[in-house]
Amino acid sequence: MGIQITPSILAADFANLDRDIAAVPSADAIHVDVMDNHFVPNLTIGLPVVEAIRKRTTHDLDLHLMIEDPDRWAPEYVEAGAQSVSFHVEAAAAPVRLARELRALGAKAALGLKPATPIEPYADILAEFDKILIMTVEPGFGGQAFLDIMMPKVRRTRELIKGSGRQIALQVDGGISERTIDQAIAAGADVFVAGSAVYGADDPDAMVRSLRAHADAELHQNHVH
Ligand SMILES: O=C(CO)[C@H](O)[C@H](O)COP(=O)(O)O
Q1: What is the ipTM of this complex?
Q2: Each residue's pLDDT tens digit, 160-170
Q3: Is 33 noted as a catalytic residue in this protein?
Q4: Which end of the chain is more exposed for a tag (fewer CB within 10 A), N or C?
Q5: Ligand 1 nearest atom to the CA of residue 66, by list position
């Protein structure tokens, strides 16, 4: 699968989404954070905006649903044009059923975990997912400091993925920058969400390429994964 850099438009200018999405042609996908002010204490965008974005970019859309009742809403984001949908295990009533429904609709299904949620209870259902999303900040806001204390969980998740014998991506989200990406890749992550690092840079696309170069260099130097 290789390294993937997915810029988060949470750090873009919401009045200029079209321009800011076009500013990262080197992105592997555009990461879209949906927050409902219930699962997390912040409110962002919903289905109509995702539908509008879908019409303006050929990039894959990587949805991250930080919402209650994903069982009800996640399939609608596939209909709106998402190629990948992450929902949180803390919020889902029936994560396996929901993952199967998303895959049946043709999307990738991803399981999200907040920092205090351990991976071990979900070891037996990992194979139902295309990707595991480990939060490296408390979800809700961009621009927070990277939680390096999550690296043991990333390592354990990589081991469980290896044990499953499946091709499952391992995404980290929150505080990823040129300074922190090395730790995450050394721990076994291969998909990186970066919001403020990308959109706070003078040249967002150059930052996407730089993050990928950092990750590639760390990967080859340490022979991780
Ligand atoms: O999911 C998120 C917050 O809940 C954001 O995607 C994440 O925080 C990325 O932003 P930054 O790179 O600025 O930390």
Answers
A1: 0.97
A2: 999 999 999 99
A3: yes
A4: N
A5: 4
